[in-house]
Amino acid sequence: MEIRLATLADAELISALNVDVQNVHAEALPHIFKHVADSSFAIPYITEQLENPNNYFFIASIDGEDAGYVYARVVRRPENAYMHPWNFVYIDQISVKPAYQRQGCGTALIQAVRELAREQGISTIAIDTWFFNEKAQAFFAREGFAMFNMRMWMEV
Predict the structure, then answer these.
(1) What is the pTM of this model?
(2) Residue 37: pLDDT above 90?
(3) What is the pLDDT of residue 55?
(4) In the predicted model, what is the mean pLDDT of residues 93-116?
(5) What domains, with CATH codes, occur in the chain?
(6) Angle CA(84)–CA(90)–CA(108) in degrees, nearest 5?
(7) CB 91 within 8 A of CB 126
(8) Angle at which helices 43-50 and 11-28 pack, to 10 degrees?
(9) CB of 59 within 8 A of CB of 14?
(10) Which of 25, 41, 105, 155 is the most buried (most CB within 10 A)?
(11) Distances from the Cα of 9 to the Cαs of 3, 112, 135, 141, in angstroms?
């Protein structure tokens, strides 16, 4: 398995790697998430994110085949009246093609984010997941993530 830092030239690949997870979310919450069929659906957005120096995309390949990616952001929150300064790496997106799941790809991607956090001198990595996605929650728990916040909503 190879993990590498993505470049601007990888925007199309990242968009294509996102299709499976995007559609999982769209199936569960179609009023929020868009279904996609065209693997180029997110290229402009991804390109914009790749240009931001606080954003990092890592791509995983297995035997030369692109298998997944993770998108992480370095977040630096200054002190305010309510909170101490808080720096963390936030995993915005992670996706592994179904054919490559349960082969260590997700773990390797999370490890790349751990290394990024260490390089940045940051001790916290945060991630969130939608309540319906029990598979992702189980994976994140196996990787060492623990609940620290809960968001709720109501429709009116």
Answers:
(1) 0.94
(2) no
(3) 98
(4) 97
(5) 2-142 (3.40.630.30)
(6) 135
(7) yes
(8) 120
(9) yes
(10) 105
(11) 16, 20, 31, 33
Cβ atoms of 118 and 82 within 8 Å: the answer is no
For residues 60-66, average pLDDT: 96
Least confident of 2-11, 32-41, 108-117: 32-41
Task: Please report the pLDDT score of residue 72 as a whole number.
Answer: 98
Is residue 51 within 8 A of residue 8, CB to CB? The reply is yes
Cα–Cα distance measured from residue 114 to residue 7, given in angstroms and rounded to the nearest whole number: 19
- In three-state form (DSSP H/G/I as H, E/B as E, the rest C), the secondary structure along the chain is CEEEECCHHHHHHHHHHHHHHHHHHHHHCCCCCCCCCCCCCCHHHHHHHHCCCCEEEEEEEECCEEEEEEEEEEEEECCCCCCCCEEEEEEEEEEECHHHCCCCHHHHHHHHHHHHHHHCCCCCEEECCCCCCHHHHHHHHHCCCCCCCCCCCCCC
